[in-house]
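Translate structure to sequence.
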């Protein structure tokens, strides 16, 4: 079923960006372009959309011509898996600081004397005093002032780290 407008599905990777389009007439077209346009274009996803709409480079995209754009990326996932992303702070509900470290207690060798756990993807944890019930109702709202204070402290620690590193 077509809407008479374009639908786009985009996967931005570290090297290539794949853009799939359903044209207004229902046909499917695909474009694969470099994620880094090296000055030829600013954004690979937008460039892919322009190409599939047969627009000139840099031309504005007509308002109302697109029904949907759904985009995913492997860039962030790969950075996390390869442990080469930015330093990260995990904000979590108070009392759940260790939930990700504990995990499911799954062990490949149940009789191993030394259990080696993977490093966490985050560097530090800040707990937020808030609580939701199982039905989604709010039992305790977070104090946004305290959350902002914790985030500001994290930013200051990053700035100090970057300053020491650049010396």
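Result:
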């Amino acid at each position: 079923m077509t809407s008479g407008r374009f639908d786009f599905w985009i996967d931005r990777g570290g090297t290539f960006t794949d853009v799939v389009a359903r044209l207004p007439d229902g046909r499917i077209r695909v474009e694969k372009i470099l994620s880094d346009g090296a000055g030829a274009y600013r954004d690979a996803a937008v460039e892919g959309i322009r190409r599939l709409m047969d627009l000139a480079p840099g031309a504005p995209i007509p308002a109302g011509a697109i029904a949907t754009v759904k985009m995913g990326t492997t860039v962030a996932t790969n950075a996390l898996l390869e442990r080469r992303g930015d330093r990260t702070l995990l904000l979590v509900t108070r009392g759940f600081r260790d939930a990700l470290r504990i995990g499911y207690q799954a062990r490949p060798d149940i009789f191993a004397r030394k259990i080696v756990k993977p490093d966490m993807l985050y560097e530090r944890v800040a707990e937020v005093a808030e609580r939701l019930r199982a039905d989604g109702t709010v039992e305790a709202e977070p104090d946004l002032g305290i959350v902002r204070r914790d985030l500001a402290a994290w930013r200051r620690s990053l700035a100090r780290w970057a300053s020491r590193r650049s010396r």
